[in-house]
Amino acid sequence: MFIDGPLVSDFIVAVIVAVPILIAIKVTERLGSDYCWVNRKIIHFSTVPAVYAYLFVFNEVYVWMIASLAFSLCTLIPHLKNREMDWFQIRGNFGEVYYCFMYLVVGSVFFYVNRPLAVAAMLLTAVGDGITGIVRFFLFKRREVAISSYASTDPSVRKACKTLAGTMAYLAVSIPLAIALLGLFEGTIIAVVSAIAEKQHLLDDNLAIPATVLALYYALASFAF
């Protein structure tokens, strides 16, 4: 029967993994806009169950596409209406929109091609960049101007916020994740180079990290014997 089909199963899984994300959005609302920077990273972490469901549970790509498109629109529309959810959205910064859009594009394109690679791109953004942002938040928590201006697209402010401690935190979680998904050689190189992509301040890291992971993976593969 249709009710037992893969699409129905995928829909149920999508509802289940959406729950932590919605809870994170609600919980961070209580923290308020003063913690906007860290709230964004908490929401990053809340997407991890969805990523593992993508890797191990989803049968087809369709529900993933619909769900990630829905989250993309739900984060984009408040910006377009100038009615941002200010506890995790900042006017003029579309980082969370890029994040959802990245899940949509990477997850959809690689679903039938190389799911572990897609998961590496997503997890290094979700967990690696997430822990990096939290470390930097507490390092800069007394620099309110820097924190509030972080998402203003001012390159000098963004560069000042990209500390060595944050990069080391990124490497500490990203290297094991990348090795587990991509192998020792490829995983280590990709994690290290993606840390550089995370640290640069010209392109939003929600785009820079997955783009680096994907491009470097295929660059390394082209040199494989």
Characterise this structure.
It is a single chain. With 225 residues, this protein is mainly alpha-helical. The protein has one domain (2-222). 76% of the residues lie in helices and 0% in strands. The protein is built from 11 helices and no strands. It has helices spanning 6-31, 36-46, 48-56, 62-80, 95-109, 115-139, 144-149, 155-161, 164-182, 184-199, 205-222. Helix 6 crosses helix 11 (205-222) and helix 10 (184-199) packs antiparallel against helix 11 (205-222). It is globular, with a radius of gyration of 17 Å.
Quick overview:
The chain has helices at residues 6-31, 36-46, 48-56, 62-80, 95-109, 115-139, 144-149, 155-161, 164-182, 184-199, 205-222. By secondary structure, it is mostly helical.
Low-confidence stretches: none
Mean pLDDT across all amino acids? 90
Number of domains: 1
Q: What is the global morphology?
A: globular
Helix/strand/pairing category:
mainly alpha
Number of strands: 0
Pattern of helices and strands: HHHHHHHHHHH
Helix content class: over 70%
Fraction in beta strands: under 5%
Biggest sheet character: none
Number of helices: 11
In whole angstroms, how far apart are the ends? 47 Å
Rg value? 17 Å
List keywords for this structure.
225 residues, mainly alpha, 11 helices, single chain, globular
Please render the helix and strand layout as text.
Layout: H1 6-31, H2 36-46, H3 48-56, H4 62-80, H5 95-109, H6 115-139, H7 144-149, H8 155-161, H9 164-182, H10 184-199, H11 205-222
Helix pairs in contact: 1-2, 1-4, 2-6, 3-6, 4-5, 5-6, 5-11, 6-9, 6-11, 9-10, 10-11
